[in-house]
Amino acid sequence: MAIRLIDAGVVPSIRSQTLYHGLGYTFSNETPNTIVLAVPKNPYMCIGFFQDAEQELDITYCKKNNLPIIRRETGGGAVYLDQNQLFVQWIFKPEDLPAKIDDRFKLFVKPIVDTYKHFGVNAYYYPINDVHVDGKKIVGTGAGGIGEAEIVTGNFIFDFDYEIMANAINVPGRKFQKGFKEGLRNYMTTVRYEIHENINIDIIKHIYVSKCEKLLEERIEKGKLKRHELKKIEELDERMLTDKWLYQIKKPYSPDRMVKIHARVWVGEINHTSEEADIKIEVKLLDGRIEELELTGNFKEEPEFDLESLSTTMKGAELKEIEKRVEGFFENSDNTCTGISQKEWMKAFLKIKELRMSIS
Amino acid sequence: MAHEKVNGCVILKNLHYNVENNTWVRVIDDSTVVIGMTDIAQNLAGPLLHAKTKKVGTVRKQGKPIATVESGKYVGPVKAPVAGEITKINDALSGDAGMINRSPYNSGWIVEMKADNLADELSNMVSGDDAVAAYKEKIERDNIQACEQIEGADTYD
């Protein structure tokens, strides 16, 4: 059976999400593997299924700026989506995709990478699920199992509003709030930035489809939504805009937060409270190492050592080295600590690792 | 406990398996079963970050979701191997979904269900050497890579 292509064109924001959800929920043995292409008419924020909207986003900012928030049933974090992106959505039979999720992403991004290359954008696959150009992200992806289908989604990014994304996300850490927008610019790129020209979207679609045909060794034929599929999509258009759907995940408030800028870069804030002190760590991770760090705190008794020297010791540490670095610092007799125990410092620093491992 | 490793993936012979959906069933009594993800399923998914089970009292048809899990950027359902009512959920998973990775057949169980028609449904599952053979075939057919032993995982020698 040929792969069905649904070129939905420019669609309302909610429809750019409900298309693949609806096709997933109605998927059966008779449904052909389907590729959807769509462009959202208006900007919106989209959060991963397990995210707490109120913790991840500045809801007030989103409301004030008419930025709808949509929860999707795939993984990953909060993203800004708009009309300068072309969405690509695969709704496939499980047996037609690699069983291992990492391999699935690798397959999915290949025609996107090849299409970018066709237009002179030097894109390459960056495991597990990113596409980069010179270390900067140029595709966002997600995956999920919806109904009887397996879904993989991604987007071509032609241009990007860094400012709105930076304002809409609750960025942890005072130190990094200011730098988040610059961080996005440093670690995210667009077609417009890379090749300084606009490409006709129909040509991109055409090239992308031909790359998919080559990769998947299947014919891809333009098709339409069936009546029952459209009915389900319309039902989801309403359901996925309700507060019940959006706010269904409530996580206990945590003073510790970490946000991904892209696969290599994360920023976070740890607030460790004990009887001896309140320790605040603002941290930036690059390639699994502490690249930047700021330590502050309220201490019952000020530490005898300079906090800057502890920061210096911890900079460059891989996550798995954190324990060793803290121990090493306190083995030095000059760094005795009467006001706050080594144990509390250790707990505070280990939270960086725990937090990083707890989010996708 | 009698087990076999297929491509490094553990299969306990005393459990019943729905091979297609990669779930296992432990029979407690005539109608009560405990359900979880197989070692192969947790390996394919990778490190799990979140798990949300349906509420106690939820009635499910066979094949409908009893839980949703997230690993990396993938969110997917755990499908009910039997029809019936959820009578107990593993609360520990909401704070530590990684338990499914470390202990898929023990502490990482997902829900307990009161099955509507257990005898019939068990007859559609495989256990013992049949389960081992079915998984050998699945691993080969789907080209599934070897399961990796993760830190802190239950050990089977």
Written description of the protein model:
The complex is a heterodimer of chains A (360) and B (157). Chain A has 360 residues and is α+β, with helices and mostly antiparallel strands. Chain A folds into 2 domains: 244 residues, 2-Layer Sandwich (BirA Bifunctional Protein, domain 2), CATH 3.30.930; 101 residues, 2-Layer Sandwich (Enolase-like, domain 1). Helices cover 37% and strands 28% of the residues of chain A. Chain A is built from 13 helices and 16 strands. In chain A, strands 10-11-6-2-1-12 form a 6-stranded mixed beta sheet, sandwiched between helices. In chain A, strands 13-14-15-16 form a 4-stranded antiparallel beta sheet, sandwiched between helices. In chain A, a hairpin with a 2-residue loop joins strand 10 and strand 11. The longest helix of chain A is centred in the first third of the chain and has 18 residues. The model of chain A has no long low-confidence stretch (mean pLDDT 91). Chain B is α+β, with helices and mostly antiparallel strands. The mean pLDDT of chain B is 93. Chain B has a domain of 102 residues: RNA polymerase II/Efflux pump adaptor protein, barrel-sandwich hybrid domain (OB fold (Dihydrolipoamide Acetyltransferase, E2P), Beta Barrel). Chain B starts with a strand and ends in a 16-residue tail after the last helix. Chain B is built from 4 helices and 12 strands. In chain B, strands 7-10-11-5-4-3-12 form a 7-stranded antiparallel beta sheet. The chains are: A alpha+beta (360), B alpha+beta (157). Chains A and B meet through helix 4 and strand 10 of A and strand 6, strand 8 and strand 9 of B. Strand 10 of chain A pairs parallel with strand 9 of chain B, so a sheet runs across the interface.
